[in-house]
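Help: read this over?
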Amino acid sequence: MYAGGGSGEVARAVSSVAVAPIEGQSGWLVRNALVDRLGAGKQQAPRYRLDVRLDEKLQGLGLIGNDAITRERRTLRARYQLVDASNGAILLDATASADAGLDVVENEYAVIAAEQTALENLSHEIADQIVTRVAVRLRQAR
């Protein structure tokens, strides 16, 4: 798939994908990760557009006797479409998902930092899944 390195056929096709803006903080993180991985912007006129919609959830788990939450699960799901910019045809319609568990401790700052780190890691994982599927699809299209 990566024959020819950065100048190979698939690398050139992947870099011609423009990533549409995505709502929210998680959208900003996912979009930046996608742009980094795709190498978007190397070509002047994108041939494809990637539309992504995110759904995230933070769920409290692990209740103890006083109904305090001791564990959380953060889930990030993406529904994405690869669209041919020339004719609007949808080349790929798929989903990606990732989740992470984290401990809830008494220190509120530590919990907030853990939730943020989990979101950043999930964003990278989602971006990796999307880029892999897009690269495979563009390789098949050749």
Q: What stands out?
A: The mean pLDDT is 87. The beta strands are 17-19, 48-63, 69-84, 90-103. The two ends are 11 Å apart (CA to CA).
